[in-house]
């Protein structure tokens, strides 16, 4: 795994405990971490934290983001509202690999009520160590920001 990158972390109350595990995991491996909150398991609204993680990445303060709520769904929706951000909700390592290889996702969304800590850390590791494949996927990822009027699929 590359250890030269900064990872923005964010969670609501449903994801707080897993966010802390993720933070410990990353710091133990010499990653830089930007913690966007929350700082406790008190009830919190996920849109604010999902946006903060995504904005950290969009602004270049972090190269990757991890956003965790109960299901990961709210965090993924919130993060994807920030222009240029591709947030992927992953529930297994294959999804994490493809989110990077084909979709060039910069933000990993996870659901703490869906995946256990061991699986979440495995998903995270795969997400961080998989590179974007480029090639035909480059065009498709570009189209996410500017969808074509028709499908001119060139293969
Ligand atoms: C909070 O109860 C829950 O709705 C939230 O963590 C998340 O799962 C939303 O998508």
Q: What does this entry look like structurally?
A:
- With 155 residues, the protein is of the alpha/beta class.
- The protein has one domain (2-145): 3-Layer(aba) Sandwich (Ribose 5-phosphate Isomerase B, Chain: A), CATH 3.40.1400.
- It is built from six helices and five strands.
- The protein has helices at 16-28, 46-58, 73-80, 93-101, 117-129, 136-145; strands at 6-11, 32-35, 64-69, 87-89, 107-111.
- It has a five-stranded parallel β-sheet with strand order 2-1-3-5-4, with helices on both faces.
- Helix 1 (16-28) links the parallel strand 1 and strand 2 (32-35).
- Helix 1 packs across helix 5 (117-129) and helix 2 (46-58) crosses helix 3.
- The longest helix has 13 residues, at 16-28.
- It is globular.
- D-ribose (RB5) binds at residues 12, 14, 46, 69-71, 73-74.
- Residues 12, 14, 46, 69-71, 73-74 line the site of D-ribose.
Short description:
The protein is an alpha/beta fold. The protein has a single domain (2-145), classed as Sugar-phosphate isomerase, RpiB/LacA/LacB (Ribose 5-phosphate Isomerase B, Chain: A).
Give the key terms.
single chain, 155 residues, alpha/beta, Ribose 5-phosphate Isomerase B, Chain: A, five-stranded parallel β-sheet, 6 helices, globular, binds D-ribose
Strand order of the largest sheet: 2-1-3-5-4
Sheet with most strands: 5 strands, parallel
Integer-rounded radius of gyration: 15 Å
Q: What structural class do you assign from the helix and strand content?
A: alpha/beta
Look up the CATH topology: Ribose 5-phosphate Isomerase B, Chain: A
Ranges with pLDDT <50 over ≥5 residues? none
Bound molecules: D-ribose
> What is the overall number of helices?
6
Helix content bin: 40-55%
Number of β-strand runs: 5
- Shape verdict: globular
Strand content: 15-25%
What's the helix-strand series? Answer: EHEHEHEHEHH
- CATH class identity: Alpha Beta
CATH homologous superfamily assignment: Sugar-phosphate isomerase, RpiB/LacA/LacB
Provide mean pLDDT, rounded: 96
Distance between the termini: 31 Å
Count of folded domains: 1
Architecture (CATH level 2) name: 3-Layer(aba) Sandwich
């Amino acid at each position: 795994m590359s250890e030269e990158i900064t990872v923005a972390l964010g969670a609501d109350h449903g994801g707080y405990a897993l966010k802390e595990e993720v933070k410990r995991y990353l710091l133990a491996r010499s990653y830089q971490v930007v913690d966007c909150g929350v700082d406790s398991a008190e009830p919190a609204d996920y849109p604010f934290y999902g946006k903060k993680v995504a904005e950290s990445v969009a602004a270049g303060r972090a190269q990757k983001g991890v956003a965790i709520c109960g299901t990961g769904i709210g965090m993924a929706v919130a993060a994807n509202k920030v222009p240029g951000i591709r947030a992927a909700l992953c529930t297994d390592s294959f999804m994490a690999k493809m989110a990077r290889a084909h979709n060039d996702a910069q933000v990993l969304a996870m659901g703490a009520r869906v995946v256990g800590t061991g699986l979440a850390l495995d998903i995270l590791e795969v997400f961080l160590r998989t590179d974007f494949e480029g090639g035909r996927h480059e065009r498709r990822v570009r189209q996410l920001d500017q969808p074509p009027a028709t499908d001119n699929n060139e293969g």
